[in-house]
Design goal:
alpha+beta, DNA Primase, Chain A, DNA primase DNAg catalytic core, N-terminal domain, Dna Topoisomerase Vi A Subunit, Chain: A, domain 2, 10% strand, globular, binds zinc ion
């Protein structure tokens, strides 16, 4: 395995690998990008071609091409290995030591696939699926979409599917139950029952086209006590909070269009999709999760919400909008007015209107103000109160102070009030623990921190030089133990002083426990973008500062010692200490004058 990892690393370049996921910009000897793992507008993500590593100085995520693909695709090492092997054209030696958990996951995926195929077959080719197929067609879903989304039908009698899976495909009962699709019959016949029986089914695929679970919709004429939609329960594969319906089909279009439309439910996603609106995904309900936002963040930073028009009233929706705002998303709202109840209806009846509303999507805060004012009479006291209660919690959470101020003014205008009184009202909705950080920021920085900062800075300057071993041997020769306060760095410097290798080979030869420290320091050093001359001047300057600091510390200790000795009888000790003190003073002035 080790050899294959090395082989892949040899054949691929991290710049191309990461560059195939996010745009990289060359900057001197390294590449930068806005970090794909945390929301940011200015790039703090760095990639080094020389060392084949990356690091984000915003969220500290760091590693090699394998860890990048793992992190980015949210997959494990083995899966990342498969992806990169494909990219490198390396044939992986079949791994016989898959863990039980991996085998189980594979088995469940396989069963889910069979189930999806079975349901789909029942819908399009079996007499039992006839009325379900009619229903889907009547809803305007094309044959092509039925194929693409593998829409299906689960027969009312579970005997059909259990015969197929257990008798024909030889799957075990407990594996079927583990997929979440099936339960064990508690009464009557032995065997399994199908959770989705009698329903129209939609396989829930992840963005890599794997069937993780299903959702099922009741058909006309079903028992009215049944929930309209049900989903697979949480399983080893399916986590509701991680899934975005349609992302596997929409991801390329989202990247191209630079925004994503978010709707509720399968039909609202499929209808616009088959009308050519391809950058669209569906969530369940009106709130989205952090995991879903992280997934979307890989492709875009603009969301257009096309959710139920009264979503502004839901606290779950409010939380998810707050979350998206802090993650740096630009959030807009597609309004269908009173004309249509949802995107499915709108796009079918009037695609031009849908298109036009899409272009006119309102910034989320405008939408919330406008829709709330439209639903309440701002000239009455009760109306004003309602409006404030709905809108202020949203405005209170806007992270950008200028934008926040803007909307406070807009709201004041709408309800005939002043920005000042709204600002006063909004304090009720501001979380009391927000100003906490200020107190730590203003506390004095301990002296030791300054030294540590200087040491780290110096080290990053040395390591990012063209030939770090030469620089260190030249400039650190009379202070080889300068870094002893930071043992990990001192170890690195010791190795460097004894080395005669290029930075690439030096990096490869490092023991695993030193690598992360080295990589971080190295990339930091590259980010300064110094010329060799500038770097040398800077190194000398920092060494001088550090030496000065060390001498001053010693002087302080000695002067305290002298003060104590002056009250004692030991004249000899006093005079040698004073001599030592004077010697240090001379050294200090020498060091200070030798600086650049
Ligand atoms: Zn980051």
């Amino acid at each position: 395995m080790e050899n294959q990892v090395e082989e892949i690393k040899r054949k691929l370049n991290i710049v191309n690998v990461i560059g195939s996921y996010i745009p990289l910009k060359k900057k001197g000897r390294h590449y930068t990008a806005c970090c794909p793992f945390h929301g940011e507008k200015t790039p703090s993500f760095m990639v080094s071609e020389e060392l084949q590593i990356y690091k984000c100085f915003g969220c500290s995520k760091a590693g090699d091409m394998f860890s990048f693909v793992e992190e980015y695709e949210k997959i494990d090492f083995k899966e990342a290995l498969e992806e990169l092997a494909k990219m490198a054209g390396v044939q992986l030696v079949k791994n016989t030591q898959a863990t039980t958990a991996e085998l189980q996951k594979k088995k469940l995926l396989e069963i889910n696939n069979e189930v999806a195929r079975f349901y789909h077959f029942m819908l399009i080719s079996h007499p039992l699926g006839k009325s379900a197929l009619e229903y889907v067609s009547n809803r305007g879903i094309t044959k092509q979409s039925i194929e693409q989304f593998k829409i299906g039908f689960a027969p009312r009698d579970s005997q059909y599917i259990s015969t197929y899976l257990i008798d024909k495909k030889k799957y075990h009962l407990h594996d079927l139950v583990a997929t979440g699709t099936f339960g064990v019959n508690r009464y009557g016949k032995s065997g399994v029952y199908d959770r989705f029986s009698g329903r129209l089914t939609f396989p829930l695929l992840d963005y890599r086209d794997r069937v993780l679970g299903f959702s099922g919709r009741v058909l006309p004429g079903a028992d009215t006590n049944q929930a309209k939609y049900i989903n697979s329960p949480e399983t080893d594969l399916y986590h509701k909070s991680h899934l975005l319906f349609g992302l596997n089909f929409a991801k390329d279009a989202i990247r191209e269009q630079k925004y994503v439309i978010i709707v509720e439910g399968e039909f609202d996603m499929i209808a616009p999709f088959q009308h050519g609106v391809k950058n669209i995904v569906a969530i369940k309900g009106t709130a989205f999760t952090k995991e879903q936002l992280e997934l979307l963040h890989r492709y875009t930073d603009t969301l257009i919400l096309a959710l139920d028009s009264d979503f502004a009233g839901s606290s779950a929706a409010r939380r998810s909008i707050e979350l998206a705002d802090t993650m740096g998303f630009d959030i807009k709202v597609l309004s269908l007015g009173d004309k249509f109840k949802d995107p499915d209806e709108a796009i079918k009846a009037d695609p031009a209107f849908f298109d036009q509303q899409l272009k006119k999507a309102l910034p989320i805060w405008d939408f919330i103000i406008q829709s709330t004012v439209a639903g309440n009479d701002p000239t009455t006291i009760k109306g004003k109160k309602n409006i404030l209660e709905i809108v202020l919690p949203f405005l209170a959470k806007i992270t950008n102070a200028v934008i926040k101020d803007d909307y406070i003014r807009k709201l004041a205008l709408e309800i005939g009030s002043t920005p000042e009184s709204i600002k006063q009202e909004i304090t009720h909705y501001t979380s009391p623990n927000t100003p906490k950080q200020i107190s730590t920021a203003t506390s004095p920085i301990p002296l030791a921190t300054k030294k540590v900062n200087q040491l780290e800075y110096l080290c990053s300057l040395i390591f990012s030089a063209k030939n770090p071993h030469k620089v260190s041997q030249k400039l650190l020769k009379d202070t080889p133990d300068l870094f002893q306060d930071i043992p990990l760095i001192q170890k690195l410097i010791d190795l460097l002083l004894a080395s005669s290798e290029t930075v690439e080979l030096f990096h490869q030869s490092l023991p695993a426990e030193l690598k992360p420290t080295f990589e971080s320091i190295y990339l930091k050093g590259l980010s300064y973008n110094f010329t060799s001359d500038q770097r040398r001047v800077e190194i000398v300057k920092v060494i001088t500062t550090l030496k000065t600091m060390a001498i001053k510390d010693k002087l302080k200790v000695l002067s305290q010692k002298i003060a104590l000795l002056e009250n004692q009888d030991d004249i000899d000790l006093l005079s040698t200490t004073v001599l030592e003190y004077n010697k240090l003073l001379r050294l200090l002035s020498q060091v200070e004058s030798s600086g650049p």
